[in-house]
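Backbone geometry tokens:
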Amino acid sequence: MSNIPAVKATLEDTPYIVTFNDDLGHQWTADEPLEAGGGDTASSPDRLILASLGACTAITLKMVATRRRLPMTGVEVDLQLNPDGKPEAGNDIVRRITLRGDLSDEQRAQLLKVANACPMHKLLTGEVRVRTELLE
């Protein structure tokens, strides 16, 4: 098994349901909302991006809190894409994190730094190159 994450997206006859399969054997779907011509049967691609950041944030915080034996009992991550409308350039993601547990201000500040260093945050805020090849 490779350590390089890989996902295949397949769209067949039903617009716009896309089935994903990853290199670990997981399967999930995406769709567009009704107003975009989809069936609204699954999350849209933009929501999947937000979900990836939210999952990564929560998992990273839990891992670090456990390792450091911090009294964090739970975490909630609320995310919005362009809540003030689409900006002229780029996009804005607002991430609001609620930490549960009897944490000191210092521990909360440490965990905020951890959230900003999670792998998906780094990916989304760093330089990303997409090389596209059209296959036969």
Observations:
- The CA atoms of residues 16 and 109 lie 42 Å apart.
